[in-house]
Every structure is written in C-alpha cells, then in structure tokens.
TrEMBL record:
InterPro entries: Aminotransferase_I/II_large (IPR004839), HTH_trans_reg/aminotransferase (IPR051446), PyrdxlP-dep_Trfase (IPR015424), PyrdxlP-dep_Trfase_major (IPR015421), PyrdxlP-dep_Trfase_small (IPR015422), Tscrpt_reg_HTH_GntR (IPR000524), WH-like_DNA-bd_sf (IPR036388), WH_DNA-bd_sf (IPR036390). Pfam families: Aminotran_1_2 (PF00155), GntR (PF00392). Keywords: DNA-binding, Pyridoxal phosphate, Transcription, Transcription regulation. This is GntR family transcriptional regulator. In the C-terminal section; belongs to the class-I pyridoxal-phosphate-dependent aminotransferase family. Residues 13-81 form the HTH gntR-type domain. GO terms for molecular function: DNA binding; DNA-binding transcription factor activity; pyridoxal phosphate binding.
Length: 470
C-alpha cells in the first residue's frame, strides 16, 4: 500500500473533489502507478485531517471518473486511463522506448499474421457470395442455423457433443459470460469460482449483484471439499470455472478432479459455467467438465484466445434439456443479435479447416515464446504449469521480499506492464506474491525479449525503498 498523501494547499472547492483532482494529477504525472493500492479511507483521513466520509466521497468520485477501482474487503487501486476494470493496459505500442505490454492476455501473432490473411480471403469470398444480402438482414437472436451448426462443430473440437439448438452465438467469451449470468442468476445469488479467477467474471458479478465466493485451489485446481463446504454453508447457484489452462495459474484440472467437482455440483443442485477459453491449446487434455454434468452445465467454446480477439464471436452451449431459448432471449434484449458477418467468417473457418490450422500455428508460436521466457527468466520461482507448452500466460511466483502490487509498480517504472495477483483475488486481503506475465501481446519475439529482460532486471535489483508521496 502506498503512503500517498496529496498536498491540498492552494486548492479550492469541495474537499472530496479536491482529493479526487489531486489523485488524477498524481496519476497523470506518474507518481501513482496503475495497480497501486491506495491508503484506506481511515488512514488517508487521518493524514489529511478530514473526515472518513470525505475520503469515501473522494474515492467514489475518483471511481466515477475511471481513476481507480474499488473492491470490497480488498481496497482501492489506481487504474490505467481509459482501460476497462478487468484489463491492465492498452495494446502494446511496439516502439523501443514505449511500455512493453505483458499484462494483456492476447494470443501470440505467428510470423506472417495468418489470421489476417485468412480474414482477407474470407471477406473476398463473401463479397462474391449470393448470400451476402442475407448477412445484412436481421437474424434470430441465437444466431442463424448455419452459424449455430458451426458452433456445435467447434464445441466438438473441445470434446463436447452438442446439437445446434443448444448453441447461442455470442459476441465473444465475455459476452457469453454476461448472457449466462443474466439468464441463470438473480441479485443476491452466490457465485463460486476459483480463489484466483478471471477478473471479468468479478466485474460481471458486481453488475448483477451476485455474492462471489472464492474456492481453495491446489496443484490440481479447485479443491472439491471446498466446493462441498461452500454448498453446505448456504445455497450456491452457479460455479464458474476454467478447468483447462486456468487464468491466471495455468493449471489443468485432471479428469478425476473434474468428475469429483461435477458430483458435488450434482448433489447440491449447482449449475456450472465452464469457460474453455484455452481448451484447444494443450496437446493432451481431459474431457470438458461439462461432459460429467451434462444436465446442468453451460459451456463457453472459446474463440478469441485461440484464433484472434477481433472476431468477437463465441459459442455458448446450453444443456440438452435447457436448450438455448433463455440465453437467446438475453442476447435479443441486449443487442437483438450477434453480428452475422463475423459469425459467417468463423463458420467458414470451422468448416474448411482454417480455424484448426490457425490453432496449430498459434501452438507453435507460443511454444517458441515460452522457450524464450524460460531462457530469459530462468523459471524464476514460476508455477509454469504442467502440460503448459502452448499457454501464453505465465504465473510468476516472486522472490521473498516482494509484494505483488509493488512489483507491478516497479516493473512499470522499468518499462514493462504485468498483472498483479490482487487483480485475480476473489477474497479479502492481498493476493499471493505473484504476477501474471503474458507472452502473447508483443507483436514480435524481439519485443517480447525486451520486456522479459526488463522483468529480469527488476527481479535482480530487488524491491526499491518505499517512499512517501507528498
């Protein structure tokens, strides 16, 4: 936590706005790095000689302006300008002097950018197609039949058998999560997930006023006894999990663990939302958890992390009995439909094998980048993950003496962005001394090596002395 104490002299106006203005200036000047945890309301009130209520209003004003993000029980953190709460910073700029982006978990771009070439070819073919006019018309909220058939075929790549009527075409995985929560939960419901989880689900849980409870993790993923205990303590509505290449730790749940979690969920009537964003990256992987609880599992067949984020298409698969009507209704209420043009592109890629070829190229590029990361970082305290040869985020355990948020701030001062463990925590208190390092965002391997080398320098130099900001 920073010892930030702004100088309020010669400032006029309501005190809470003056504090928020000072925070904005210090962030813009680089005196408050993104990811920095601010003093508690009481601590800052005592330093400034104001009431706790004034600081509370100041932090609320700062959050309204997009300067900070607050998490109940954990504190208030400085945000990057103009960046969504669950994303650390913008796309890597690419020039030598700029910040190297290792915080955004984007898929690596193989040499020659095959996704761009595939898109150009598909758009040219679509331009000559007699069906083009159909793609400019309204479609069913769940998606055109041909696009839902492609979704079922894509889900089969993950090992999930589904019929087209179970599939809803969404505008990416994040949208699929939002659709599922809107359709399956109500305010006050309990959502359980890994104790460290994808930040986007936390943002959505706050929007839908859900109670989030983190479940203990071990080297095999969620501990089944933790799910059992949560269910016994009170009704649990939904389990959100990433059993394959968990974000951020990279863990792959084994088949036995998946069966055990499915049995606990079945016994207590818990719905499961399985996010398989990275499911096709491992060469060997267990069947989806959803196959062990087919009557109550909703499956997100990822695309953005496997092909390219810009398509903004994802497939949400409902249980056979539930079909997709309630999910489709939520899509229709929010946006009428998911854009048919991009859905058509992806359908063509699934049908003609382009999607599979892109995944193979991504695996190869990612393996090469992981080798570079191991060479530069030397496996420094890292939980690199079993069977993680194609995973493009690393969970880096920090040496003794480091705290996650301090490492993030110091790394940023050295020109590289990574994500603090605190970003992924579901419970109160600071997260473990670890950071997530993403090796896919830099456009080139040379750019990646530059960022990793800066991280290596930070690790070697150790924590900088803490100094007050006045």
């Amino acid at each position: 936590m920073t010892s930030w104490s702004p100088d309020l002299r010669e400032r006029t106006g309501p005190l809470y706005r003056v504090i928020a203005d000072a925070l904005a200036e210090d962030r813009a000047a680089g005196r408050l790095a993104p990811g920095t945890r601010l003093p508690t309301h009481r601590e800052l009130a005592e330093r400034l000689g104001v009431t706790v209520g004034t600081v509370t209003r100041a932090y609320a004003e700062a959050e309204k302006r997009g300067l900070v993000r607050g998490e109940v029980g954990r504190g208030t953190y400085v945000r990057d300008a103009g960046v969504p709460a669950h994303m650390p910073s913008p796309v890597d700029a690419g020039d030598e002097a700029s910040l190297v982006e290792l915080g955004v978990n984007a898929p690596a771009t193989p040499e020659g950018d095959p996704a761009s070439h595939a898109l150009r070819k598909s758009l040219e073919e679509m331009g000559r197609s007699p069906r083009l006019a159909e793609l400019l018309a309204y479609q069913p909220a769940a998606g055109a039949l041909a696009h839902r058939e492609a979704g079922a075929a894509w889900a089969a790549r993950f090992g999930l058998v589904a019929r087209p009527e179970q599939v809803v075409v969404c505008a990416g995985g994040q949208h699929a999560m939002e659709v599922a929560l809107a359709a399956l939960t109500k305010p006050g419901d309990t959502l359980v997930t890994e104790a460290l989880t994808y930040p986007g689900i936390k943002v959505l849980a706050r929007r839908f006023q859900l109670r989030v409870q983190g479940l203990a993790l071990d080297a095999g993923g969620i501990v089944p006894e933790a799910l059992e205990a949560a269910c016994r303590a009170g009704p649990v509505r939904l389990l959100y999990t990433q059993p394959t290449y968990h974000n951020p730790t990279g863990v792959v749940q084994g088949e036995e663990r998946r069966r055990a979690l499915a049995e606990v969920a079945r016994r207590h009537g818990v719905l499961v939302l399985e996010d398989d964003s990275y499911g096709l990256l491992p060469a060997m992987r267990p069947p989806p958890l959803s196959t062990f609880l087919p009557e109550a599992s909703y499956f997100i067949a990822g695309v953005s992390k496997l092909l390219t984020p810009g398509l903004r298409i994802g497939y949400l698969v409902a249980p056979a009995r539930a079909r997709g009507e309630r999910l489709a209704e939520e899509v229709g209420l929010a946006s009428l439909m998911t854009t048919p043009l991009m859905a058509e592109v992806l359908s063509r890629w699934v049908e003609d094998g382009t999607a599979d070829a892109l995944v193979v190229r991504l695996r190869s590029e990612t393996a090469a980048r992981r080798a570079l990361a191991c060479r530069v970082l030397g496996g420094e305290g890292g939980c690199w993950g079993d069977n993680a040869e194609a995973l493009y985020h690393l969970w880096l355990a920090l040496p003794e003496g480091w705290r996650s948020e301090e490492f993030v701030a110091q790394a940023r001062r050295h020109g590289v962005s990574v994500s603090s463990a605190d970003l992924f925590c579901t419970g109160p208190g600071p997260g473990p001394a670890a950071v997530r390092v993403c090796i896919g965002a830099p456009r080139t391997r040379a750019r990646l090596v530059r960022g990793l080398s800066r991280l290596r320098e930070v690790l070697d130099s150790g924590p900088e002395p803490r100094a007050a900001i006045v």
